[in-house]
Give the backbone structure.
Amino acid sequence: MPAYLHAIQTAVPKTSYSQDEAAQVMLASLTPGSRASKLVHRIYAHSGIDKRHSVITDLRDGGGDFIDDQGSFRSPTTGTRNDHYMAHARPLFKAAGRSVLDAADGFSADDVTHVITASCTGFYAPGPDFHLVKDLGLAPSVRRVHVGFMGCYAAFPALNMARAFCAEDPNAVVLVVCLELCSLHLEPSEEVDDILAFSVFADGASAALVTGQPPASGAAFRFESMDSTIAPDSESDMAWTIGDKGFKMVLSTYVPKILEANIGGVVDPVLEQSGWTRDDITHWAVHPGGRAILDKVRNGLDIDDAPLTASRSVLAEYGNMSSATILFVLKESLANASSGEKAMAMAFGPGLTVETGLFERI
């Protein structure tokens, strides 16, 4: 049974910071002239990011839970950070979901049969899947699933699950919403991996409908296939654990090299299953985990940079919003695709897990 991805929408917090401002927050807690401070200058300046959005409003002015009146970082507890998640996640989930329903031609809140949410930057129950039913006026009988703690690739299991629901019931209308508030786990550090991680992560939400029927009008991606694999010898290079001062994100400097060495061997068998080759792909919707990741994936696939335009644009404008990011990229890819053009989407997360999806624009 065919399934269609459409009405992709995004939402971000009102507050944003330039990459230079974000660097100053980190530098304020490091020794001037130290190796760590020099790394911050270099890494932030070459990140490919212009600005990032955050639910934290005191990074610029101080006087809050994260920055005091003197501009020093408070290092709030994980509990305090999760309190901010609970306060800010619900309205952002609602905004993304409402935008989808407003944009979905031929579908309304009354048609939604399933809700799938994805997030790994906070926890509460009843969770975002429950509150979306309440906040969007969905039927209480809507079937709900929450995908948690899977990191940057979580949108793919969510989309694949939605596709499976549509295969089971061609009348299924699945609302998928991904949200991450990564900036809540900001913590100054002199470790290279920590500096690298916090130079890219940001906050945002994205959402879409997956249906067994195409939209009445407008563009959509038809699912061709979805696949998953694990890169060899990479378990410790991308990870996420819970600490006393937020969630500790590990983004090793080796990740881009691992992807460069392995991405061709991941992509080609997936394409072959559909009878496609790399030359058939017009849009490479690559999760912009960082500038180096996009560079190395491009090199590993031996493709031009033009098909990565959407990924680089999202990175520059929003940074890495973990699971929410790939739908930002797919939204831009869909807007720029012509009927019949093919797209390959991919994202990377803890493991190192590589998730891929093949789509054709209708």
